[in-house]
């Protein structure tokens, strides 16, 4: 059930809005002034806020601005004056919609539903983007987000540089890199070291990923050139 906060000083209007929203299966909380409205908006886990513009104490302009600094939930602003609505739009406070009083409660419900659907779609897309970044080649599965490596479903521990080197090669399969290139890529230009480090790390990676290190199936040595991740 979606949770709606109504911040409205005219109690009769607030009650009417609440009744219609509750009839449509929303859970509703009312606050009658700007200060307690803002406080409730910040601490409560609301899905949408219906915010009156003219409020005692802190007005709707300020409440909207402060909520926006912390939360991106839909804010539906209402006002008795059309001029005020135009002013709010002009200020770009980040409200999602505006309604001029008096409005029909059914219209409020319709707009609340539309904004919640839209918001859920946006949040859904956001969650999808947060999925872990995975590189998968044959039996190797590299979870770049969690920095974990699985070989045929079994997790193996890698040091930071081993992980970076394996991931880099796996992300550029079938390309030959010289030890110099790999050293610069993984250890950085500023690093002091020698390219033998690359050889040592390749050996360690092979011990973890290859069934037979004498016949590597993943990281191939190209004699006289460097290494290549076979696809
Ligand atoms: Ca008012």
Blueprint (SSEs and pairs):
Layout: E1 3-7, H1 11-23, E2 27-31, H2 34-43, E3 48-52, H3 60-70, E4 75-79, H4 82-91, E5 97-100, H5 105-129, E6 134-137, E7 140-143, E8 148-151, E9 154-156, H6 160-171, E10 176-178, H7 179-187, H8 196-209, E11 219-222, E12 226-229
Parallel strand pairs: 1-2, 1-3, 3-4, 4-5
Antiparallel strand pairs: 6-7, 7-8, 8-9, 10-12, 11-12
Helix pairs in contact: 1-5, 2-3, 6-8, 7-8
The structure holds calcium ion.
The site of calcium ion has 5 residues, from loops.
**CATH homology group of the largest domain:** Response regulator
Shape verdict: elongated
Roughly how many Å apart are the termini? 49 Å
The major sheet is characterized as:
5 strands, parallel
Q: Please give the count of helices.
A: 8
CATH domain topology of the largest domain: Rossmann fold
Number of strands: 12
CATH secondary-structure class of the largest domain? Alpha Beta
The helix/strand class is: alpha/beta
Helix content: 40-55%
Low-confidence stretches: none
What portion of residues belong to β-strands? Answer: 15-25%
Give the strand order, joined by hyphens, for the main sheet: 2-1-3-4-5
